[in-house]
């Protein structure tokens, strides 16, 4: 039974604040928000009307992004000055999170744009090969170990992601490989020498290769990676027909891969060579 009618049960407080009773019990256990009175007979928790404003403060601060420990420490003694200082500090935290989310959003949008463009290029009746005027681009690269099989390529790619994350590099959510031109001419289409991640403004890093702006011949290969040879043969034949000289290694950009499909038959790889008029 309640001590007096000015107290609210834990169920009533949970209903008014739209939170669970378990949350209020947890707040009590950690010393953040304790009931005004606990019935000694049954252990039921009751809260005073004045405590509801205090709980409002806790829930609002939690929504702003403060941890429970930060809230508990702050509310030991808080006034206008301490609250203003704490909110200003949180603004800096929020700004950093917003900047991070904007960067992630731009990376996701870039991935969507590439996938939509690839779907258009791979549509029935569309020519599969084209010339593009590529912009300057930076790639975070790591070597692929011999014997350059899919296993070594996969390991190098995972190392790219891990090292880029450790260095907080602004990578795009995409990977790729570089295949030396001499290996392609020898029909060894899958023996990549480098794995890479496209990056943005990486600064001075010995692992970053800067691709120049220039004209590139491109083809979108659809299918599993081991079948990529047919697309290389088609692209090289087209370059000969167009009297274009291939003057770079091959850059393969994964457009639709294990990140976006479980079916290797749906994989899309953009293959690009820098070219010049022969």
How would you name the oligomeric state of the polypeptide chains in this document? single chain
Mean of residue pLDDT? 93
Note the gap between the termini: 95 Å
Spans of at least 5 consecutive residues with low confidence: none
Q: SSE order, as H and E?
A: EHHEEHHHEEHEHEEEHEEE
Secondary structure category: alpha+beta
- The number of distinct helices, counting runs of at least 4 residues, comes to 8
Percent of residues in beta strands: 15-25%
Strand count, sense and barrel status of the largest sheet are: 9 strands, antiparallel
Integer-rounded radius of gyration: 30 Å
Number of strands: 12
Helical proportion, percent range: 40-55%
Protein name: MerR family transcriptional regulator
InterPro entries: DNA-bd_dom_put_sf (IPR009061), GyrI-like (IPR029442), MerR-type_HTH_dom (IPR000551), MerR_fam (IPR047057), Reg_factor_effector_dom_sf (IPR011256)
GO molecular function: DNA binding; DNA-binding transcription factor activity
Keywords: DNA-binding, Repressor, Transcription, Transcription regulation
Task: Label this structure with key terms.
278 residues; alpha+beta; 9-stranded antiparallel β-sheet; 3-stranded antiparallel β-sheet; 12 strands; 23% strand; transcription
Set out the fold topology.
Elements: E1 7-9, H1 10-17, H2 21-29, E2 37-38, E3 45-48, H3 49-64, H4 68-74, H5 80-121, E4 129-134, E5 137-143, H6 150-166, E6 176-179, H7 181-185, E7 194-199, E8 208-211, E9 214-222, H8 229-241, E10 244-246, E11 250-256, E12 268-277
Antiparallel strand pairs: 1-3, 2-3, 4-9, 5-7, 5-8, 6-7, 6-11, 9-12, 10-12, 11-12
């Amino acid at each position: 039974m309640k001590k007096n009618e000015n107290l609210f049960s834990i169920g009533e407080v949970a209903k008014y604040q739209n939170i669970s009773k378990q949350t209020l019990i947890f707040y009590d256990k950690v010393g953040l928000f304790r009931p005004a009175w606990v019935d000694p007979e049954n252990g039921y928790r009751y809260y005073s009307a004045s405590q509801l404003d205090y709980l409002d403060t806790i829930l609002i601060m939690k929504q702003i992004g403060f941890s429970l420990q930060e809230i508990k420490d702050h509310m030991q003694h808080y006034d206008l000055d301490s609250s203003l200082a704490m909110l200003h500090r949180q603004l800096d935290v929020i700004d950093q999170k917003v900047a991070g989310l904007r960067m992630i959003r731009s990376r996701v949008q870039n991935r969507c744009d590439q996938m939509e463009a690839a779907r258009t290029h791979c549509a029935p009746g569309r020519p599969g090969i084209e010339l593009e005027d590529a912009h300057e681009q930076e790639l975070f690269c790591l070597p692929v170990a011999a014997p350059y099989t899919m296993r070594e390529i996969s390991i190098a790619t995972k190392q790219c992601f891990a090292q880029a994350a450790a260095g907080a590099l602004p990578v795009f959510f995409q990977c790729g490989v570089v295949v030396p031109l001499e290996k392609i001419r020898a029909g060894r289409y899958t023996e990549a020498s480098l794995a890479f991640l496209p990056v943005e403004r990486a600064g001075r890093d010995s692992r970053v290769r800067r691709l120049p702006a220039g004209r590139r011949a491109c083809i979108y290969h659809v299918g599993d990676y081991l079948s990529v040879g047919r697309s290389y043969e088609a692209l090289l034949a087209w370059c000969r027909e167009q009297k274009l000289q291939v003057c770079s290694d091959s850059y393969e950009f994964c457009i639709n891969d294990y990140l976006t499909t479980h079916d290797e038959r749906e994989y899309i790889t953009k293959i690009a060579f820098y070219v010049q008029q022969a």
